[in-house]
UniProtKB/TrEMBL annotation:
Alphabetical GO biological process terms: peptide transport; protein transport; transmembrane transport
Keywords, sorted A to Z: ATP-binding, Nucleotide-binding, Peptide transport, Protein transport, Transport
Protein name per Swiss-Prot or TrEMBL: ABC transporter, ATP-binding protein
Source organism per UniProt: Weissella paramesenteroides ATCC 33313
Pfam families in the record: ABC_tran, oligo_HPY
Chief localisation class: membrane
Localization annotation: Cell membrane
One annotated Gene Ontology cellular component of this protein: plasma membrane
Family according to the record: Belongs to the ABC transporter superfamily.
Database matches in InterPro entries: AAA+_ATPase (IPR003593), ABC_transp_ATP-bind (IPR050319), ABC_transporter-like_ATP-bd (IPR003439), ABC_transporter-like_CS (IPR017871), Oligopep_ABC_C (IPR013563), P-loop_NTPase (IPR027417)
Membrane topology, from the record: Peripheral membrane protein
Molecular function terms from GO: ATP binding; ATP hydrolysis activity
Length: 317
């Protein structure tokens, strides 16, 4: 089924291998292919070390692909070399980090942190315009516009994450990579920050790559989800399908490990244990569309198993 939506990011056969000496090679990302459509939130989940951040940093053009390519608005990032185009790209793609404490310079006033991108890209006409832009941004992210002369330590963790979001928004980006943006926050604050991100997405027409290990939170914010395991994308589908009707064995095991609030349901659950050595059986695997827009990393002889599951879930006839 062809998708009519406009692709903002296209990842095609991406490999990223880190070489720290010949005997120490890490295949952080292997043969990943997926698109991110304009206006959507693509959630990337997987355990620590599965390659999520590496993909995010590669889209920021901080890592060169070992193989494959990444397109942004149809342009191959590897070919973005001219200064003008490069700075336009750097403005369009922004990142929000996990730990606002570590990602903000604590010696700087909030107004100077938020205005960093404004200054670098010469987006303010004069000092008064710069101040107004900063104050407007603070208000947009739910902070007091009169607090721009304060330092980061005068804010709570959740408020500091809002400062990080204001800093990202200052350059009017199109695409934001949010790398575990709520993992360091109190549970009570997490939903507020996610709701702010959702609200900003609608108001400012943003596209997100939302990276997290917690599948239930990713489900809440994402339109589609990609599940990563050992550097490979093992399943891609709508958030609802991946969460409620997971096809790949690894996704099923990931979901079966999420605690359920109801103890009677918890007791009845049979944990699914995924044997990761399955990945090493030498099968020639690739992404196969098992149900419409629902892809699974599978070898030829595994397709029937996944189709059977999709049929049981009513995803295909
Ligand atoms: N700059 C680097 N040099 C060498 N190895 C790296 C580098 N960055 C990441 N790796 C390795 O690549 C693999 C994938 O790491 P990555 O940070 O992308 O995983 P992740 O899924 O984002 O994990 P986490 O949730 O812990 O951040 C890991 O084995 C990691 O040790």
């Amino acid at each position: 089924m062809a998708d009519e939506r406009k692709k903002l990011v296209e990842i095609q056969g991406l490999d990223i291998t880190f070489n720290e000496g010949k005997s120490n090679e890490t295949k952080a990302v292997q043969n990943a292919s997926f698109d991110i459509y304009e206006g959507e939130t693509f959630g990337l989940v997987g355990e620590s070390g599965s390659g999520k951040t590496t993909i995010g940093r590669a889209i920021m053009k901080l890592y060169e692909p070992t193989n494959g390519k990444i397109l942004f608005e149809g342009e191959d990032l590897a070919k973005l070399k001219r200064r003008g185009k490069l700075s336009k790209f750097r403005q369009a793609v922004q990142m929000i980090f996990q730990d606002p404490q570590a990602s903000l310079d604590l010696r700087m006033k909030v107004k100077d942190i938020v205005a960093e991108g404004i200054d670098v890209n010469h987006l303010a006409k004069n000092d008064a315009d710069r101040s107004k832009q900063v104050e407007d941004l603070l208000e947009i992210v739910g902070l007091n516009r009169d607090h721009s002369s304060r330092y980061p330590h005068e804010f709570s963790g959740g408020q500091r994450q809002r400062i990080g979001i204001a800093r990202a928004l200052a350059v009017q980006p199109k695409f934001i990579i949010a790398d575990e943006p709520i993992s360091a926050l109190d549970v009570s604050i997490q939903a507020q920050v996610v709701n702010l991100l959702k609200d900003l997405q609608v108001k400012q027409g943003l596209t997100y790559l939302f990276i997290a290990h917690d599948l239930s939170m990713v489900k809440y914010i994402s339109d589609r989800i990609g599940v990563m395991h050992w550097g490979k994308m093992v399943e891609i589908g709508t958030a609802d399908e991946v969460y409620n009707h997971p096809l790949h064995d690894y996704t099923r095991s990931l979901l079966s490990s999420i605690p359920v609030p109801d103890p009677s349901v918890e007791e009845q659950r049979v944990p699914i244990v995924y044997d990761p050595t399955d990945e090493l059986d030498g099968r020639d695997r690739q992404m196969v569309e098992i149900a419409p827009q629902h892809f699974v990393w599978a070898g030829e002889d595994e397709i029937a198993k996944y189709q059977e599951r999709a049929r049981e879930f009513g995803l295909i006839d």
